[in-house]
Amino acid sequence: MAKVKIGLALGGGAARGWAHIGVLQGLLEAGIVPDIIAGTSIGAVVGGCHIAGRLDQLEDFARQLTRRKVFGYLDFNMTGSGLITGQRLCDRLGEHLGEVEIESFDTVYTAVATEIGTGHEIWISKGRLVDAMRASYALPGIFRPVNVSGRWLFDGALVNPVPVSVCRALGARYVIAVNLNADMCGRGTIVPHLGVEKLEPPPAEPPPEKTGALSALKLLHRQLFGRGSGEVSTPGISTVVVDAFNIVQDRIARSRLAGDPPDAMISPRLVGIGPFDFHRAEDLIARGHAAVSREIEDISNEIAARRMYEPRIAVKAVNGEIASP
Q: Of the candidates 284, 303, 258, 295, which has an alpha carbon nearest to the alpha carbon of residue 46?
């Protein structure tokens, strides 16, 4: 049987991206090893760690995260072009990946980013792996953008949330896509004739606490993540930015996947998991693995069928004749 070049398109989704770990584990257990990996945002991080042989270390790191540890990785910067510089996360990735470059791996890898100003879709397939990851996950307004070869780049989900097209362009004959936002279909709903009554003033801020590092940290946490719960909750900066970004990402993903559908789609069921729930890695990894279990029989059968058909494609190319099906 002929070898079928398999592509894996790992989509963006912030904390939901830990599900990619379970997806990769499920595929590898079934003997499906991708020849090409294209990743956007957190998909670029998980895909990059896989090709570098560091997926187990990434899983250990993810499973050890708590709310407190997640907050500790956020190096706030109020004077730059993002609330968070991202250097602490970059340093942690660098501890495991070092100075390795993308070209040194046998698996073809590309991280997708967006250029500020032009909106160009940038495919990073050469250079330092950590830098490619960082450019791809630089969420606008949250993480500081990254300068790569004179281009300022941020999150690739703005232009290609699930990079199926990248896998095909790199030569994949069978593309498996992982969409982390498939359960957000409700965002397409129209709510007509909503009446606006008298707007209530925003809830009063609590009185300032004693000055000091601890009170400043609490204030910063409230501004970033919001406060309260239920109907009276006030969204924080991160919620406003990320939700707006996810709505745009969802619309773009649906449009691009309709125009260039993958051969197989894996959609983990992630309802109830927010974009900053990085502390829920155990649940997310299990859901990713379960998503593969639901699809693996069809995927395996389709790949086997492609392998049977590939030699006939080769004969047509060599002899210039149309082979009978």
A: 284
Alpha-carbon gap, residue 109 to 128, rounded angstroms: 12
**What gap in Å lies between CA 316 and CA 55, rounded to an integer?**
40
Reading the block at residue 67, the tokens are 């709310």
Instruction: Kindly state the DSSP code that residue 143 receives in the 8-state scheme.
Output: E
Instruction: Decide: 22 and 288 in contact? Cβ < 8 Å.
Output: yes
Q: Are 176 and 291 in contact (CB under 8 A)?
A: no
b/e map 49-59, b = 16+ CB within 10 Å: bbbbebbeebb
Is 155 a residue of the active site? yes
The number of beta carbons lying within 10 Å of the beta carbon of residue 89 is 19
pLDDT of residue 186: 56
The residue among 18 and 202 whose pLDDT is bigger is 18
Residues 290, 37, 295: CA angle, nearest 5 degrees = 25
Q: Helices 129-136 and 87-97 meet at what angle, rounded to 10? A: 150
Q: What is the mean pLDDT of residues 220-244?
A: 62
What is the value of pTM for the model shown? 0.82
For 307-324, the pLDDT digits (tens) are: 877 655 444 444 444 343
pLDDT at 100 over 70: yes
Apex CA 262: angle with CA 256 and CA 266, to 5°? 105
Instruction: Dig out the tokens for 57 from the structure.
Output: 């270390």
CA distances from 318 to 4, 242, 312, 315 (A): 18, 51, 10, 5
> Is the confidence at residue 229, as pLDDT, over 90?
no
Q: What share of the chain is helix, strand, coil (3-state, %, to 5)?
A: 50, 15, 35
Q: Is 125 in the active site?
A: no
Q: Which of 35, 131, 155, 277 does the annotation list as catalytic?
A: 155
The catalytically annotated residue of 35, 41, 136, 238 is 41
Q: Say how many C-beta atoms besides its own lie within 10 A of residue 253's C-beta.
A: 24
119 vs 104: CA distance, rounded Å: 29
Instruction: Indicate the pairing of strand 82-84 with strand 174-178.
Output: unpaired
